[in-house]
């Protein structure tokens, strides 16, 4: 943490900001640093650490998108930091050995020419020295760092003694300000109350290295670089013997020690040096020292150490990124290591990027960018710890417990506020770059096995909200369809899965499947290996559905299980959807689905081939109708869908031909013409489902057509007006078409009934929705005539909605019931038979 700021910029900070503002800067900076250190320690002590430090922590906590994008940002922060310290070292070298401005030939030790290109050359040479140390390996760097620590500690002691031992003196200042040479005298007054008073307040002036006017934010940006070394230990986490033990102790003690030293030095400088000396001579500590060469050695040692620390940190992050394969071939080169495991190519690549940053030329120029990068990384470390804490995952058990979510939140807020105060442009650009990286990794990076904190957070919130979802507070105004679609084999049901996805209207959608096996006779659960295939199918078809698989001795038992157990809390299926039971051979619609034909992807594995046309079915007609009866007993609505394989939704709904595609709605029980009413619960549910389909994005071009069956002498226009008023009250836009059906009704069995087309008596309400008890009296001739009447209403629609009567109470009539449904829907194209038991419409707000 002690680097160029301690020896070359602390006087600059105090000189421009004054003692009060300098202490405030230290307090703000160390508040941010302190909060971040607590988060670092918490994550570092929650499991094994590997190479990459902060990147490793964030990627394993927040997942690959956040980890990869922050890894790149942290790599750039370390690269720019390394360049900053090298430029600081160049400044110190030129200050000691450079030819004074105005002289062409050097004298004594002042032999180094000064210009932009010469200083770039010196920086390149010094960076090459850092490269050699880093290439040899982290072990020699660790030994060198300890030696440097001893040197810096000795120099610090010398400086502290110098403030007390040095007598007052004048310091001549040479200022190469904008290529002109001026001389001015600064003063070391010794301890003086007058000097202290003079330096208490701020006195911002022009920075003589860049010629720019300073302010609180620009000075803070430079000062903050003296605190950014807190990640040095974390970056070497792969090289430490016990990172979980060493990182918290080393980092916290370093933070406390440096904070005390910075505050003490700031006070001593303000009490002994006048503002001119502080502002105009960044190397004044050497001038007032009792042993100046030692200060020079300290400056070189501390700055070289910080430069190497950042270079090693950057290379380790790059190596970790390459090893995780988040960026594919782009970073493949950085994976190469030496025989001892040192990531040689990552070091060389990092060195190249630092060399590019050196072209910026001046330390204060890049200080703001470096600070912004580091603040962004620190904010994300805090975010990672906050997310782990909020997710309440049982496995988040750090041995370091001195943190709460409050400290994480304060750290994030502090980082963000200071980032925008220092440089709104740099902060916005950094966040924009971070967002681009996030999106790129989200869509392009391979899935990882690290675990995603987002999943833990989602689980935590969803559980909380599910508990708040109270079924006792359900209201018809907010009813929505919650579908359970039974699928025997997805290969033959792709279009049905797609269609029901359009029908769900943001409700629950569950794909159910029954496996006919007995767990007692099996060594393990056969459903577990199938889960991945079903989930992949849902992803590929892009439907928002859950999967629910079950084992049962029969399909009917399995459907009962799913109706009882699917869903959770207030999210349970209220509608059962079945494919129609007929003798048509199943077709593999999955192979022709756009999700697979457009991307040339292989079909999901794990689904068996379709049943051959001659092969026996898994359930009998009686069992199929029994499933419908079971669902109605459980107060579930039922949809039976037929001929959907002939629905080409893309072509139907996007064709530009006029008229637009239509949805035909028949809200009358065609098997009970004596109860021809359109305002019972079932008719209104049927109307609602057609309206819901029409509201789906893909179906908005379609037009609803409502067919009103009328008999002669039944005042058809009065019925039409009544129906139109109902549609208006329900806010449903539909075209009403009157259909005379005297010829069809005449074929129906003769039975006493109320006024034609009028409301049935109240006591007949329940009977009206049922299949006729005396089934034999509904002749095939009548059903075929009703089918022909529906078929003749042109032009052919995209889909038809018909009324599904309740199955008869006598189970012996189930096959006949199914046969008459088959006759009614024969050759109609895509058809949905609907029976509703839920009140789903409301005329109120």
UniProtKB/TrEMBL annotation:
Give the molecular function GO annotations: potassium:chloride symporter activity
One GO cellular component term noted in the UniProt record for this chain: membrane
- Tell me which domain of life the UniProt entry assigns to the organism this sequence originates from: Eukaryota
Pinpoint the SLC12A transporter C-terminal domain residues.
Answer: 495-583
User: Which InterPro entries is this protein grouped with?
Assistant: AA-permease/SLC12A_dom, SLC12_C, SLC12A_fam
Q: What is its main location?
A: membrane
The compartments listed are: Membrane
Q: What sections of the protein cross the membrane?
A: 27-49, 70-90, 120-141, 146-165, 213-233, 254-277, 297-322, 343-360, 366-390, 402-422, 428-445
Its membrane topology, per UniProt? Multi-pass membrane protein
Which keywords fit this entry according to its UniProt record? Membrane, Transmembrane, Transmembrane helix, Transport
Database matches in Gene3D superfamilies: Amino acid/polyamine transporter I
| BP terms from Gene Ontology | cell volume homeostasis; chloride ion homeostasis; potassium ion homeostasis
Q: Residues in domain Amino acid permease/ SLC12A?
A: 2-484
Q: Which family does it belong to?
A: Belongs to the SLC12A transporter family.
Recorded protein name is: Solute carrier family 12 member 9
Q: Which organism is it from?
A: Chrysolophus pictus (Golden pheasant)
